[in-house]
Design a protein that fits this description.
By secondary structure, the chain is an alpha/beta fold. Helix content is about 30%, strand content about 25%. It binds ligand EPZ. The site of ligand EPZ has 23 residues, from helix 1, helix 5, helix 6 and helix 12.
């Protein structure tokens, strides 16, 4: 396994290019399985999670090639409807093959995703949505077993106790494209990644209205064709680099950052005293004054994203004053707290609330990566901490950030990747 060694104290300066969105790429790659036609997907980030999705697609029988950031899928004739535990257990998002495979092959057998360090990952909304359009679904021996000789459109409320569900929306929207009649999804996820998926499905010949809103309408069609599509850029990677510029007191141009997808993050960073200006290439982020503490509550899009909670906590850890961070999407998503505390952060946890008392300075220490975004938070803390930080198990970071050490090094960071002895 690899680790990062980071020497803190450098103000990041220069420009960085954001890659394609992991969370748009995964459901869009899965959606290519709805058709027999060839699809070409561009701006796909070369990440561990993407490679896992490609392995699942090949296992199902599709011909899949990746050259650089372009993926070519030729699914014609694939017939295996089982996504196995050994692959799905390494990436929970694999569950998004359920909708497309079920709609195309009339049956699908996908391993239950299993637990995750950010908390339980239920699938009741995925099951509710697919059952509403006629799928017969059982949970057997750790697998979701779905049969649907005939899918018929329906109206379904897909909201859960934590709000909308991104991948449950993706599963139902993709399956509904081949159902007979109209499907209406109420309390659908409005994330930009869902809108990007809807745009790709539309290019395949699907008839979808209302994506980007909580009510999505899908008029089923008989079949879909392959299509070409370029994935949107990764708003969470953009947000992570914005936080890196802020925490190091830097001055960074973040190319391809799309302010239309970053409203809540821009709002919170500006309230914290960071200057953010829109340029023709993206966003220019500069710390021009001392940081101010801000309170953050994570919510479904367009609210503040849970995938940026840990990064914001790292920033507030060095901001004088008290910040309250409330995690409403994954109430247990605080794996980063104990590791940040090893670096001197003062954070008091009380259920889904974290009270952050900004410390004057963090100090470098050996820490361990866990969840993808918790690991990003440890990197941010290490960039500003006094001295050296070793971050072990950074395969978690490789799942969602493409060559992050090269991107940080280009901005002046003292970071290197080493083999863990
Ligand atoms: C997507 O996961 C993202 N992953 C996650 O990003 C992100 O944290 C999450 O959305 C929330 O924004 C991908 O898009 C690949 P959800 P997803 O279903 O769809 C509850 C990252 O770091 N829920 O929107 O699995 C659930 O427990 C990853 O890139 C149910 O109750 O998340 C959670 O509390 C981590 N029943 C809330 O809904 C269900 O059937 C939102 O989860 C499904 C979900």
């Amino acid at each position: 396994m690899d680790k990062f060694i980071i020497e803190g104290g450098v103000r990041l300066k220069g420009s960085v290019e954001i890659s394609g969105s992991k969370n748009a790429a995964l459901p869009i790659l899965a959606a290519t399985l709805l058709s027999d036609g060839k699809s070409v997907i561009k701006n796909v980030p070369p990440l561990r999670d993407v490679y896992t999705m490609l392995r699942i697609m090949r296992y199902l029988g599709a011909k899949v090639d990746m050259e650089g950031d372009v993926v070519t899928v030729e699914p014609a004739g694939y017939s295996n409807h089982t996504a196995p535990y050994k692959l799905v257990s390494t990436m929970r998002a694999s569950v998004c093959v359920l909708g497309p495979v079920l709609a195309k092959l009339k049956r699908a057998r996908v391993s239950m995703p299993g637990g995750c360090v950010i908390g339980p990952r239920p699938i009741d909304l995925h099951v509710k949505g697919l059952r509403s359009i006629g799928a017969d679904i059982k949970i057997e021996h750790g697998y979701i077993v779905a049969d649907a000789p005939k899918l018929r459109g329906a109206r379904v409320y897909l909201g859960g106790n934590f709000g909308s569900s991104v991948l449950a929306t993706a599963n139902l929207m993709t399956a509904a494209t081949l159902a007979k009649g109209k499907t209406v999804i109420e309390s659908a996820a409005c994330e930009p990644e869902i809108a990007d998926l809807a745009r790709f499905l539309t290019k395949m010949g699907a008839r979808i209205k209302g994506y980007d809103t909580p009510i999505i309408e899908i008029e089923g069609v008989k079949s879909l064709r392959g299509a070409e599509h370029s994935i949107i850029y990764d708003r969470i990677e953009a947000g992570t680099f914005m936080a890196a510029a802020a925490i190091t007191g830097g001055d960074v141009l973040i190319k391809h950052a799309n302010i239309e997808h970053l409203g809540a993050i821009v709002d919170k960073l500006q309230s914290a005293g960071i200057r953010i200006t829109r340029t023709k290439d993206g966003l220019h982020v500069k710390k021009t004054r001392s940081l101010k503490p801000v309170d953050v509550t994570t919510l479904p899009y367009p609210g503040f994203p849970t995938d940026m909670q840990a990064q914001m906590m790292a920033l507030m850890s060095i901001t004088k004053g008290i910040s309250v961070i409330i995690e409403k999407i994954y109430p247990e998503r605080f794996m980063h707290v104990s590791e940040l505390a090893r670096m001197g952060a003062q954070i008091y946890l009380e259920g889904p609330r974290a009270i952050v008392q900004g410390a004057s300075r963090l100090s470098g220490a050996p820490v361990m990566a866990s969840d993808l975004r918790a690991s990003a938070a440890l990197m941010l803390a290490a960039l500003v901490a006094k001295g050296k930080t070793d971050i072990s198990r950074i395969y978690h970071i490789d799942r969602g950030y493409h060559i992050i050490e090269d991107k940080l090094e280009k901005l002046g960071a003292k970071i290197k990747r080493e083999k863990e002895e």
